Amino acid sequence: MQSQSWRERLYTIIFFTNTPAGKRFDTWLLIVIMASLVVVMFDSITGYRERHGMLLTGLEWGFTAIFAIEYALRIYCHPQPSRYIFSFYGLIDLLSILPAFLALLLPDAQYLLVVRSIRMLRIFRVLKLTPYLSQANYLLVALRGSKQKIIVFLLSLTTLVLIYGTLMYVIEGPANGFTSIPMSIYWAVVTLTTVGFGDIVPHTALGKSVATAVMITGYSIIAVPTGIFTAELANAMRADSLQHKCPGCAKLSHEPNAAFCSRCGSQLFERRNEQEQAQREASD
Amino acid sequence: MQSQSWRERLYTIIFFTNTPAGKRFDTWLLIVIMASLVVVMFDSITGYRERHGMLLTGLEWGFTAIFAIEYALRIYCHPQPSRYIFSFYGLIDLLSILPAFLALLLPDAQYLLVVRSIRMLRIFRVLKLTPYLSQANYLLVALRGSKQKIIVFLLSLTTLVLIYGTLMYVIEGPANGFTSIPMSIYWAVVTLTTVGFGDIVPHTALGKSVATAVMITGYSIIAVPTGIFTAELANAMRADSLQHKCPGCAKLSHEPNAAFCSRCGSQLFERRNEQEQAQREASD
Amino acid sequence: MQSQSWRERLYTIIFFTNTPAGKRFDTWLLIVIMASLVVVMFDSITGYRERHGMLLTGLEWGFTAIFAIEYALRIYCHPQPSRYIFSFYGLIDLLSILPAFLALLLPDAQYLLVVRSIRMLRIFRVLKLTPYLSQANYLLVALRGSKQKIIVFLLSLTTLVLIYGTLMYVIEGPANGFTSIPMSIYWAVVTLTTVGFGDIVPHTALGKSVATAVMITGYSIIAVPTGIFTAELANAMRADSLQHKCPGCAKLSHEPNAAFCSRCGSQLFERRNEQEQAQREASD
Amino acid sequence: MQSQSWRERLYTIIFFTNTPAGKRFDTWLLIVIMASLVVVMFDSITGYRERHGMLLTGLEWGFTAIFAIEYALRIYCHPQPSRYIFSFYGLIDLLSILPAFLALLLPDAQYLLVVRSIRMLRIFRVLKLTPYLSQANYLLVALRGSKQKIIVFLLSLTTLVLIYGTLMYVIEGPANGFTSIPMSIYWAVVTLTTVGFGDIVPHTALGKSVATAVMITGYSIIAVPTGIFTAELANAMRADSLQHKCPGCAKLSHEPNAAFCSRCGSQLFERRNEQEQAQREASD
Q: Which SUPFAM superfamilies does the record cross-reference, listed alphabetically (chains A, B, C, D) (predicted)?
């Protein structure tokens, strides 16, 4: 009994934030995650690694130990462990520990610990939860609504990039830095997205003309994803219909400003001043 | 009889995707197109061409042969061959074969085989067809609606680029990399579209001031095509309504299944029931 | 009499496009303008100027002569010459001739002939006139509506750029290319507008952090002018109100879907099927 | 008495612009602020500082003296000095003087005088006040409405940048300029925001593929803040309506001057005329 109740209390603390203890737990977890990210970053700077290598490695193993214990506790106290393990958060939690062990074989793998940054999305649980999630929900509804349009857009973009890239390879050639078609496609993406690194640039007059076309295309079609997303978001945010039961035919959903039912023609709302007017006229 | 029926069956397989065989045919075609694109790209990388030149050339001719046979079959089995040949897809199919033969004269022409990427638009036929096409249709309606506004915008842009480019040529001059007016116009496009390669940059104080004006212009007017397209797309998405002039109040747009006007309650359409009309006429 | 009528006919040809002769005149004018722009551009390319200098100079003076004669004719045949001279088009027409004479004193002034490109806006008169102008009108209404918001935005941008620029000058200093505050402000504009030439880049860790802030600011606030313009354009394109005379109080403008007058409460439109229904019920 | 009235008059001149003297004061203040900014900028250009160092330092101290006197006067004549001192404008006014004294210890601190540019926001008080402020208000309402969505967006962006940056560090490594994870994150921000300085660029094929993903991500998700802000701004601009629950149909938003509901015709507000109420009660 005692153990069972202890496990339940642990479950409430670790998985929920509506108790003071739960909130404190999540706040500390966030701080530890951020600290571990900072350590990973400092470890990648040559100067710091050379001077404080031992300390940084020690800290990294310390954080990994903390996250491993937390992971074990989460499995232990969850009523259905397998459900947690294969949930989105469960997989991310596992991915936050694995690279440390992988680094024993592949030295660079430790940097993949940065995947811990995804755990920082828990921050929404520490901040006031509901409004942020409902706002994120609007964004998701808009993204889901624009999915098919975005796929059509990305496929057209791919075709465009393939053709522009090859054209530049044929026109400019390896002598001007366009060493292969994949390289030219990379250049086309750099230019079309208006990033423009400048590591490869056209040198011939014809190449510059095509580059001008690529740039104006990129500058103009940025309107397309923006337009798609904005129109969908505006749709998601607008209260789309009037919810009112028609007195004639019980139709529930109407045009936003409907006065009459579009199915049976009944007036949806009674005038509230007709009786009063009658009374007033009578009393005159 | 037998041959005729075989030709009809072939027509269904090659030109439609609603049969299992037709779907399998289109899926394989897509895979072959992608494989041929990969081969063209590898052939352009010097290292691969030197080591596997024979293999790559062989594969390219193989793919060309497959596409040539497919093209011949399409002409053979289509009920009205000339209609197919001069359709958009027919011309693309021809363009997917020609560069291979052109390459016997002009070596670089083979890379134009990348035009095959346009054939990949067939992917919409393999994926669930209708929703994607209707979404692409929204985009096309919005683009068509914004055509005139976009032309006005592009002409203003052209004038702007011409004047900014010449101004920079006069201010900076050939000594600072602005070697001619066309070169300066190229720079103006690179800057106005916010690409900013950095291969040509202003060096004088006055030149930098004009460059600042160009950049802020470019950064601000990107709002114009976006605004045009978004407004048109929102319009196109809203227009999913019944277009019918209400006999009572002339309201034009109604709910898709409206029988009565939601503004004045008038019946939108007269009942054409003949018995009733007869009765009414009799009672007049 | 004869001369008067000849002048009137000339006026119709030169200033209007609704006659075949007028349309032909404007089309030829456009071709001459484009040809003169091409000559100015070729003249700025060193190679061409050296080889064909005499020819190009000759052509330029030829075009200037044509435009000068056209300008004289416009003044001659206009009923109120002074009104034409001080109109927008009149001033542009004058500016298209002046730089050629100015070039006798200042050699580089000839390139200012590019100002002729503004004359190309006449192209809207040659194309089908009305739809383009009404579309351009939407854009102008939207721009005028967003003027005050844009000024607020640009002033905030200026303050931001001044502060970011000075901060970078203090942090990076002349040793890293930020040689003065105006130079740093130029860098801030290059970065905030996402152009990113790369001729000046931060080298210190602190400088890179500030640069990150500048870039994310620039990337995010591009939403502001776009949002302003889109919202205004959508407003301009939406039929804002219902135009219908209220039977009760003669109010003319109502909410888009109003069924009742919001001033006197009268029903705006009669139900067109009530009489009919009564008849039908009577005949049953 | 005399002194009191003089202080009150000073208060009106310094803090308000609705009197001619107040407007003149604010106009002159703006000119002095701009002049002081110009002096700070010239002082940062090596050539000018060397030749006119004494003059520039003198002018700077002159401007600092003017602002110090102005600050003292503002405190002196304000009815509640502490309220002014801790207001936004009060703090900015103090910040406009401090760096000059700080510069006696830290030479570079004088450039922080650029913070005076924030004082230029007073320009809205000199220009016609109300329309600009109400427009700025729309922008603020839209920004406040989109705050939560923007935070969700920026947090997702941060996670994305951390992961992309580390990935590039692991793939490209110090040999290709990606010397540490913070450096790679800086590169990821430069690329994702489409700035693209080009000081660090990927060199391996895999690195270029990831860079392509980063660029297309950046190019696409710029739609998100734009969409959020546009939708909110359109909302803010539409909300110029009367918010009152209709007693008949619960419609919430009406025309600014509505007396009756445009959907059901109900009178929105009861007449509070007491005589009438008395009559009505009597007739009950």
A: NOB1 zinc finger-like, Voltage-gated potassium channels
